[in-house]
Specification:
The complex is a heterodimer of chains A (about 250) and B (about 675).
Chain A: H1 6-12, H2 22-39, E1 43-50, E2 57-63, E3 72-76, E4 83-84, H3 90-96, E5 110-121, E6 124-135, H4 136-151, E7 153-155, E8 159-161, E9 167-169, H5 178-181, E10 187-189, H6 201-205, E11 226-231, E12 237-241, E13 247-249
Antiparallel strand pairs in A: 1-2, 2-3, 3-4, 5-6, 7-10, 8-9, 11-12, 12-13
Chain B: H1 14-27, H2 38-46, H3 48-65, H4 73-80, H5 113-137, H6 142-159, H7 170-173, H8 193-206, H9 216-230, H10 235-251, H11 265-278, H12 286-294, H13 302-311, H14 318-334, E1 337-346, E2 353-360, H15 366-396, E3 425-429, E4 437-438, H16 444-450, H17 475-490, E5 492-494, E6 498-499, E7 519-520, H18 529-534, E8 539-541, H19 562-567, H20 569-575, E9 605-609, E10 620-624, E11 630-634, E12 646-647, E13 649-650
Parallel strand pairs in B: 1-13
Antiparallel strand pairs in B: 1-2, 2-3, 3-4, 5-8, 6-7, 9-10, 10-11, 11-12
The chains are: A alpha+beta (about 250), B alpha+beta (about 675).
């Protein structure tokens, strides 16, 4: 949610039952402004909250000019002091895939994972138990990245692509009409396109290169994993992703 | 009288004449009409049939457009539609199509024109407007249209009381419908050949093809109307293009580019429904109502609780909370409810559920329960028949199929209402404003099966739950079972808020099952918030634990009733001694949370202060890690020490050993919240 329209967005997304207490809201509004100034971001978005056992992480992302470029992720425990997280890499992902369970809430916490590794000692080959330490920060980074890749959704028409490459916000986008908003085809995955290249020429002919440069939600497997549970009385529709449930897009 | 003057109508009636022409063009009148005879004019109002006919026309049209009926239209209509028709096709008889085509230059208002002029203008105007609007209003409603055409013929045929088409015959008011839409009690006269030819021709022109709703008749009518309106210079030359344009326009209604079409129908419907919520009941006087309402009602103070939950960072937005409050109020009015509580919201794929936990007043429940039982008994009867037939077949076969020795496990009886898992009744609705639906009582087998599966809720109570192991019931049963589990696991209160009543009965007498009732402790003084947060021992469960059997009080499944013992004595002897079921014991009521088992090395509960910056005013919030979305708050103030455990917003994955395919979950919560906030839950 954009820091500028944070309150409205929170209100609209409240149907899921998760919200922010007034003190958090107030501190968020203040601190996100400062983050934007300090890091010189074009836009700062409040990504969300990850619940941990001891404490919760509040995540924000900063966007530069190019909307689709990798964003800088920051986290905070009290919505006031923000720390930058390192960008996600593949190794991180494989490393943290073994960790299961809840987040502790302490960024310096280390998960211990015992692995059986084959160790060559001379001629003998035997397996040794190696304890691998994984920091919670790393896990946080890769989890956020995975969630983003899976479920970040953007409506069609909100961004457009210029021939030079950078992707800009479409200032004339006023939202989708109600009938369009109910269709999965009006939404895209907000990430580098994966399926776009695999489309046949016929399908590509119908696409508009300036608007349709990301994967549509229509072809997600399993079908129906993203759905629209409710129409808010004001007419906005909440889209709920089944895979990473708890992820709502307004 | 003589022929009507074929002169241009008096210039004082330009508008009506153009309307005349339009209407008549549509009629495609094909014959000449004779001039109106003044005597006939007098006769007309007296003829009841005519009046009836025209009234029918009027009513038909007024039904279409809500115009007021005008009986005075009758004489006017008659005047209007008499004229020479230059387009007459002499082949057609006059009765059926007495509609006159009026060229602009003519007005049939012959000798009576001066008298009838003002009436005429009025009448024509209205009539034409009616007919116009009626015509345009129902382009797709062809049957209606046909009748309309038919009936529009009526006054005209009556009015032009000349010659062969004017008969003093009731049946003539309703010219025999070519398409048979009108069924009449009256006998139809034998149609003359010319009449028949006319009917056939019209029928042919009126038929529509599979491709479109437009018939040739209508299209030609449209086309001629267009031509006469626009009056182009060389119509014949332009005929082709006009034809195309007319066709195109039929299918492309002109959209107003400056104004938006009204859209958002579903939201209007929703708003209507919710508006009903806000209306007060209309019975009684104003003052009385206020007094009644300020007295105690069963509806809890949702807004206050919403405020506290908001401090905890949980909850629906305030206007939605208010709507929930109004919906609960509506529920209380409809059902005989003693106490009511908003249990929470369960998110579903298509729709969500708002759940209310209620207790009926004494004695009110029994009627509804009997109905439910009858239905289930009916089902069982059917099954018994099936088994008997199967036995017969087996006997007939030459090879005796060995009978399987497997017997289904004994069905554990469900708990009575108001006890154990069925202590409360639950009502659900999809959104405030929709009707509340009652959930059935839960049976132990449903709870046991619900523990094994994870399924998203779709939002429809009658949806089947397809899973393995199979769940005995539909989504309503599944929902109820999960509600029971959540309630049993997460309804907590501060230590001391509830206490056991001073009962004389010992625990031993009740078979070790423990007490199952509690009452509020009037001496409760509240526990400081910091203490509530520090130690889980300060919180206790106030609902009974559900045993592995699926019930709160244990029942020995091998104990058979007297009937069963008589039938199955032989079998029983064989089985005796093989199975001995241990009595299942669970933690007693009001056990502190510190006794709760750990989940995978993780504490089952998390307690926090709602706001660390102002601890003196904050509330203690306890969150369940087993059922994400279950929250409880307690403030230090003893007056607001009520802890409505609000198992809030449930969704999804309850961590359960692996089972279930894909994205299924039972109501775990959506802590992932809004706009991408995610709680990454790894499966176990």
């Amino acid at each position: 949610m954009d820091a500028e329209s944070l309150l409205l967005a929170l209100e609209l997304a409240s149907g899921s039952g998760q919200g922010l207490s007034p003190d958090r809201r107030a501190s968020l509004l203040t601190s996100l402004m400062l983050v934007k100034r300090d890091y010189r971001f074009d836009r700062v978005l409040f990504w969300g909250r990850i619940l941990g056992l001891v404490a919760d992480y509040y995540i924000a992302q900063g966007v530069s000019e190019d909307q689709l470029a990798p964003r800088k992720t920051l986290y905070s425990l009290n919505c006031m002091e923000w720390s930058l997280l390192p960008p996600a890499t593949k190794e991180m992902e494989t490393q943290t895939s073994v960790v299961k369970g809840r987040f502790m809430g302490d960024p310096s916490h280390e998960y211990e994972h015992t692995e059986l590794q084959k160790v060559n000692e001379g001629e003998k080959v035997f397996e040794e138990e190696v304890v691998v330490q994984i920091k919670e920060e790393t896990r946080l980074v890769s989890v956020i990245d995975q969630i983003d890749k899976a479920v970040a959704v953007i409506p069609r028409g909100a961004l457009f692509k210029t021939p030079f490459g950078p992707i800009n916000v479409n200032r004339t986008f006023e939202g989708l009409s109600l009938s369009e908003a109910k269709k999965l085809s009006s939404y895209f995955h907000f990430r580098e396109p994966v399926e776009l290249k695999n489309k046949t020429l016929l399908e590509k002919a119908e696409l508009d290169p300036s608007l349709d440069f990301m994967d549509s939600l229509e072809h997600d497997i399993p079908k129906g994993c993203s759905d629209f549970p409710e129409v808010h009385p004001s007419g906005s529709i909440l889209e709920d992703n089944g895979q990473c449930s708890g992820n709502f897009s307004g | 009288m003589g022929d009507p003057p074929p002169d241009p109508e008096p210039p004082s009636q330009p508008t009506s004449s153009s309307r005349n022409s339009q209407v008549s063009e549509r009629r495609r009148s094909r014959e000449r009409t004779r001039p109106l005879v003044p005597e006939e004019l007098q006769q007309i109002p007296l003829d009841p049939q005519i009046l009836r006919g025209s009234q029918e026309v009027l009513s038909n049209q007024s039904n279409l457009r809500g115009w007021p009926q005008r009986a005075s239209l009758t004489p006017n209509e008659n005047l209007v539609f008499q004229a020479e028709d230059p387009y007459v096709n002499p082949g057609f008889s006059a009765e059926v199509q007495p509609q006159a085509y009026l060229s602009e230059g003519r007005l049939q208002a012959s000798h009576n024109a001066s008298l009838m002029l003002p009436q005429l203008q009025q009448g024509e105007g209205n009539l034409f407007q009616q007919l116009e609007s009626a015509y345009q209003g129902s382009p797709a409603d062809l049957p209606g249209q046909f009748t309309m055409y038919q009936r529009e013929d009526l006054p005209f045929s009556q009015g032009t009381q000349h010659g062969p088409y004017m008969r003093d015959d009731p049946t003539l008011q309703f010219s025999p419908s070519e398409l048979g839409f009108m069924s009449f009690n009256m006998e139809l006269p034998e149609p003359e050949p010319r009449e028949l030819a006319v009917q056939n021709a019209k029928a042919y022109l009126l038929q529509t093809s599979v491709n479109s709703d437009l018939s040739l008749y209508e299209h030609l009518a449209n086309l001629l109307t267009k031509i006469l309106n626009q009056r182009p210079e060389d119509p014949l030359f332009l005929l082709e293009s006009l034809n195309r344009t007319t066709q195109w326009e039929w299918f492309h209604p002109k959209l107003d580019t400056l104004r938006d079409d009204p859209e958002m129908q579903p939201t209007y419907e929703m708003a209507e429904r919710q508006k009903a919520l806000f209306g007060r009941s209309s019975s009684g006087e104003g003052e009385q109502e206020m007094e009644e309402e300020t007295a105690e009602t069963a509806v809890p103070n949702i807004m206050e609780k919403a405020f506290y939950f908001e401090q905890a960072g949980v909850g629906l937005s305030s206007d939605e909370s208010f709507r929930v409050f109004m919906a609960l109020k509506q529920l209380v009015e409809q059902q005989p409810i003693h106490t009511c509580r908003f249990w929470g919201k369960i998110l579903g794929l298509s729709r969500s559920y708002l759940v209310a936990e209620v207790e009926f007043r004494e004695g009110e429940e029994e009627a509804e329960e009997e109905e439910v039982e009858e239905m289930t008994e009916g089902g069982e009867g059917m099954e018994a028949h099936g088994e008997e037939e199967g036995d017969e077949d087996e006997d007939k076969a030459t090879d005796v199929i060995p009978k399987p020795t497997w017997k289904p496990p004994p069905v554990i009886p469900k708990e009575d209402s108001r006890t154990g898992t069925n202590r409360y009744l639950y009502f659900v609705c999809n959104e405030p404003g929709r009707p509340w639906m009652r959930l059935p009582h839960v049976t132990p087998i449903q709870i046991v099966q619900a523990r094994k599966i994870r399924k998203f809720f779709t939002g429809y109570l009658d949806a089947p739950v397809i899973s393995y192991p199979p769940f005995p019931g539909n989504e309503a049963n599944y929902l109820r079972a999960q509600i029971a589990r959540i309630s049993a696991a997460t309804h907590i209160s501060p230590l001391g808020f509830y206490q056991f009543g001073e009962e004389e009965g010992d625990e031993e007498e009740e078979g070790g099952a423990g007490r199952d009732s509690y009452e509020e402790n009037p001496d409760f003084e509240g526990i400081p918030v910091l203490e509530l947060v520090d130690s889980m021992a300060n919180w206790v469960h106030h609902t009974q634990h559900i045993l592995p059997q699926g019930r709160c009080t244990w029942v020995n499944p091998l104990q058979k009733t007297e009937e069963e013992e008589e039938l199955g004595e032989e079998e029983e002897k064989a089985d005796e001694g093989v199975e001995e079921v241990e009595q299942e014991v669970g933690p007693p009521l009001l056990t502190p949370l510190s006794e709760d088992a750990e989940i995978m090395h993780m504490a089952p509960w998390t307690a926090r202060l709602s706001c660390t910056l102002s601890p003196q005013y904050s509330v203690a919030v306890v969150r369940s890690n087993l059922w994400p979305g279950a929250y409880a708050y307690a403030s230090g103030n003893p007056h607001s020490a009520r802890v409505p455990q609000r198992p809030g917003h449930y969704r999804d994955e309850r961590p359960h050993g692996g089972g279930g395919a894909g994205p299924e979950g039972c109501p775990g919560a959506g802590p992932g919240g809004c706009g991408g906030r995610g709680r990454r839950r790894r499966g176990r």
